[in-house]
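Hey, resending since the last one bounced:
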Amino acid sequence: MRFGLIASRLHRRDANGGLAHWIEASDAGIRSLQLELHAVGGTYDALMRQGLLAGYERLVRYPDGRDGGVMRLVSHIAGGLATASELDGVIYLIDPVDPSSLYPEALALKRQCVVHGKPFVSTVAGAIEWMAVERAHAGLAASEAERRLFEIDQQTVALIAHDALKDRMVEFAAEHFDLLSRFRARVGTGTTGGRLNDMAWSRGWPKDQPWVQRYLSGPLGGDAQIAELVLERRCQKAIFFEDPHVARQHEADIQLLERAVCSATRDTTCFNSPAMAERWASAFA
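The structure tokens again:
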């Protein structure tokens, strides 16, 4: 596997940053998977400066962001100019108050990952958990730090989908109903939450108990309500089926939720496409 790697300045500045935290938790997983990391300049330099992944030879340095490093990652997620340059996903540890995460190339990087069904991992907890997902698919045991993120009976999951993907969310939830029912709680926004409750009741969930706690619809503030849950560390996972093909009137609300997830970077993970969610769910098998 070949992943792009970017860490915002806050995450890469010293040994207490998110980049070091991820590497320390996932060093064994990275090595056992022989994950090839294509790191943008400043992130690569931070790995070298802090002695992270010492002796690991599957590191590739891209130019700095100002010299087109992130733009190259976007192209390589889409397939690049040659088969040998294609990437399988991206880990982008985002500082929500760093304006570089809102640059066009950063937004395009996420969009191309969603379009092509490839992982876009934006939090430290998500990066640790994704190594566990890939190790599970490779038949390898997870580390202690990774296993803690799979203790879903102690977690709350948000289930959110844009209009074009609401049917897909209901299908996903029905297919993995037993797994999702193991969470301590499930939350969702307006229409999606209502449809998920109807699905659960049709499968025998007690009629007097909502399977999903519903908040307002996204345009009316539901995304903001769930963002507050995330910020209070009361929601540990977001399964968020985004439609990358249409303009959205409440784009600011969507970005607010995504930035809240990045603020809770060591506590919350986010899967923003059906492909990511399916691969995560199948890891439990």
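The two ends are 21 Å apart (CA to CA).

Sorry for the duplicate.
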